Structures are given as C-alpha cells and as structure tokens.
Amino acid sequence: MTEHTGSCRCGAVRFQASAEPHHVSYCHCTDCRKATGAPVSAFVGFAADKVSLTGEALKSFDNGPVTRSFCGVCGSPIAYADGRIGETLYFMLGAMDAPENYKPTLHAYVREQLPYVHMPDGLPRHLRTSVARPDET
Q1: What's the number of domains the chain is made of?
Q2: Looking at the whole model, is its pTM more than 0.85?
C-alpha cells in the first residue's frame, strides 16, 4: 500500500491515511472558493476511520453540515467533512506530501465555475455535487 501523508505549510498539523483514496476531484463551488482563496479546489477523499491527524494546531470551522479544518498557526486549509455523506474526510490535494500521485477524475459544481477558468482535460463534469447527499436532487 502506498503511504498517503500530508501536512500544513508549517508542519504543525500532519495527517496520514492507511487506505487508498476513494475520491479525487476538482470542486468549483463558491464555498470551496471562499474557504481556500483559490478559483478551483482539488480534494482527495479517504474513509475517516482510516485517517489519523496529529498536531495541536488543528482548528475547525463549521458551516451547517460541513466542517473545514485548517492549521491554527499558518492558516493552511487541511480538509473538509460533510455530515450528510458519511464518514469521509476530504484532504486538500495540495496538502498531500506527494500531490502528483492523486490525479483528479472529475469536476463538481461546474455550474459555479468561474467563466475564465478553462480546464480542457476531458474529465466528467457534474453541474452539482459528484457525491449524493440526502438533500440534493
């Protein structure tokens, strides 16, 4: 099994996953844009029970069912969890120690994609979420 590790920019928060990722994707939603400051975000999803986080600097912010975690020292976004979709933790692809090992397989929330962001990669594009949520249609 490949080692799946990552950290914040300053190293005060580290994480490790002991299973293969089940989801690697881009997200174009406004909430991710606001949370990361980037025009598009990329995430790597793991089963939460296969993940360990270390470091007392880990902070979180709750926005409805979504919890976003970040480093309280350097401010780096680390991960998000959505209580509506089960026990999954999505790490920021850029926080992975070897981000080149995680190639996104789809785009989510393309209806919110910024008009100047062009990513002609041929990946599937979902107008809304790519992961079913009970309150989504």
Answers
A1: 1
A2: yes
